[in-house]
Amino acid sequence: DKLYNLSNWGADLFSINRKGNVCVHPSPNSKYSIDLRVLIDDLIKRKIKPPILLRFMDILEGRISAINRAFKGAISDNEYPAQYRTFYPIKVNQQRQVVEAITEFGKRYNIGLEVGSKPELLIAISFATGKDIPIICNGYKDKAFIETVLYATRLGYDITIVVEKLFELEKIIALAREIGISPKLGVRVKLSSKGTGKWATSGGDGAKFGLRISEIMTAIELLREEHMLECLNLLHFHIGSQITKIDKIKSALIEGTRVYAEMCKLGVNLEYVDIGGGLGVDYDGSKSSYFSSVNYSVEEYANDVVYQIKNICDEVGVSCPNIISESGRAIVAHYSVLVTNVLDTSAQSLTPDFEEVLDSTETLAPTVKKLVDIYKSIDRHSLREDYHDTLQLIQEAVSLFNLGYLNLHDRAVAEWLCFKIFQKINSIVERLKLVPEELQNFQLSLRQTCFANFSLFQSIPDSWAIDQLFPIMPIQRLQQKPEINASIADITCDSDGEITSFVGENGRTKFLPLHRVKKNEDYFIGFFLIGAYQEILGDMHNLFGDTNAVHVTFNRKTGYKIDTVISGDAVWESLKYVQYKGPEILKHVRDTLEKSVASRKISIEQSSHFIELLDRTLVSYTYMGE
Ligand code: PLP
């Protein structure tokens, strides 16, 4: 638990059971749980292969409840005279079953949907049957987008178009007149306040979206002239996702509410303030303002939102608006976990053992002999000196090899000895109270590359794109001390496909502690908190496609219930994505094979075996099999 900081990022949804396996709970601290290792073993028995994306739908319910409970509490504590409503931004995870679950669980909280494109608008329209699920449209909108909204409004849907650019407003006014409908309108204001971290540019004067204050004045005048000012009832701002510092949120709220109050004073009949997304997730459990963490809780966030808005409205003497937040990350991040197998704990299993050289050093080169001496004599007192000498000797060995004075065997022995010496130093360092500074990061030099059966670009693209930290840990043997410090490499042929930053005991670490995998042992690692943005941002680098996905719900009697299995892409599907056709490839190979059979390069049996193999490969999973 401590090694991976699980209790701090797990939000009480993940724990370790007595068997040493990671468990998932439907809601914080619930007595119901699913043992991840047991679940994976059961799925493999059902012939579902790793990597497997596990989606725990009940967790979505828990997160929606937590946010709404926090706002309910804040509204009651602050005697806030209006209401709160969550709008789920579909872009964070558009999966049909996710939106379905969110709208279903969300009924109790009158949840709405936020969309930012035509496809997302159609998704939202397909879930709502009228005013039951209100919709907010952000993003750039063309004529077809606006027309669709206007016709849907005529049908009785509750849709608000948020104006992001002035030219949009002109289009909306013209189309509304043509169709003869009063649209519900909002404006997005470009605040001077900025968020923090990677998404800070979503706010501030240079932000891509929103109207400047002067443009808002123009919009008001335009609507007044067109006798449509009563259509404008929502003010929106969004200063970025994953805002790590609560004071940035407060500044945005103060500025945004001032804009609201001034607009009210100008006679705009605003009913809603939509504070956008930004409610962050504590990915590393450090509760800091580092960008993979946040320095506030959901309760503190809700309290600040309600308090700041009320404070300014009371001071200015305008009525308090209904509050909307578009929290996406905070709703979906926790609900999915990718589990996959570690392919080997490399160096350990296959590296030849040169133990015999310790007894007979006569044939070894003098440089290598010196390494043997260090290995035999090293102790607490000679630690630093031996460390320096080892580094120097290994360099010397490489130079001698390059000059042709060291043979391959001796170079391999030098490499092996260096590793053994470092292991010895490490075991001494672990017992020391006062560790010399240069040895403090010593474990790093023992870091091994472990290959895991996944594509970082498909399953956790933000790890590559923006260095985002996701909690990663083994899901079994957690009652045993791990023996290996590893980096995790994926199976793409891209050296960027390696993770070298992990969530550890003291925040961020440069290695993941893993257990030595025994021969024929199945050993799995889990990638946690990957439900927000990753599924849709993932790409098909090296044509590794979608992973198998399994929707799991908690069941009192049986522990868990498998609701849906969505097969990952097969090889032919990945190929189709880039315009190749499986049958054409087969035909091409068959023609070549016929020629080879005719010229007796290959037997008929081998030729048909090859065709069978290709046939099987085309329908197989894109990830590693046996
Ligand atoms: N609303 C808008 C306008 C956004 O651009 C975003 C994402 O950046 C969100 C909501 C969702 O933000 P988050 O996932 O941080 O809650």
From TrEMBL:
Enzyme class: lyase
Organism phylogeny: Bacteria, Pseudomonadati, Thermodesulfobacteriota, Desulfuromonadia, Geobacterales
GO BP, one annotated term: putrescine biosynthetic process from arginine
Binding of substrate, residues: V273, D274, I275, G276, G277, G278, L279, G280, V281, D282, Y283
PANTHER family linked: ARGININE DECARBOXYLASE (PTHR43295), BIOSYNTHETIC ARGININE DECARBOXYLASE (PTHR43295:SF9)
Domain Arginine decarboxylase C-terminal helical span(s) in chain numbering: 575-623
Domain Orn/DAP/Arg decarboxylase 2 N-terminal: from-to ranges: 77-333
Keywords: Decarboxylase, Lyase, Magnesium, Metal-binding, Polyamine biosynthesis, Pyridoxal phosphate, Spermidine biosynthesis
Active-site residues, record numbering mapped to chain: C493 (proton donor)
Cofactor: pyridoxal 5'-phosphate; Mg(2+)
InterPro entries named among the record's database cross-references: Ala_racemase/Decarboxylase_C (IPR009006), Arg_decarb_HB (IPR040634), Arg_decarbox_C (IPR041128), Arg_decrbxlase (IPR002985), De-COase2_CS (IPR022657), De-COase2_N (IPR022644), De-COase2_pyr-phos_BS (IPR022653), Orn/DAP/Arg_de-COase (IPR000183)
SUPFAM superfamilies: Alanine racemase C-terminal domain-like, PLP-binding barrel
Catalytic reactions on record: L-arginine + H(+) = agmatine + CO2
Enzyme Commission number(s) from the entry: 4.1.1.19
Domain Arginine decarboxylase helical bundle positions: 365-440
Chain coiled-coil ranges: none
CDD domains registered for this protein in UniProt: PLPDE_III_ADC
Name of the protein in its database record: Biosynthetic arginine decarboxylase
Family note: Belongs to the Orn/Lys/Arg decarboxylase class-II family. SpeA subfamily.
HAMAP family: SpeA
GO molecular function: arginine decarboxylase activity; metal ion binding
The species this protein was found in: Pelovirga terrestris
Superkingdom of origin organism: Bacteria
Pathway stated in the Swiss-Prot or TrEMBL entry: Amine and polyamine biosynthesis; agmatine biosynthesis; agmatine from L-arginine: step 1/1
Known function: Catalyzes the biosynthesis of agmatine from arginine.
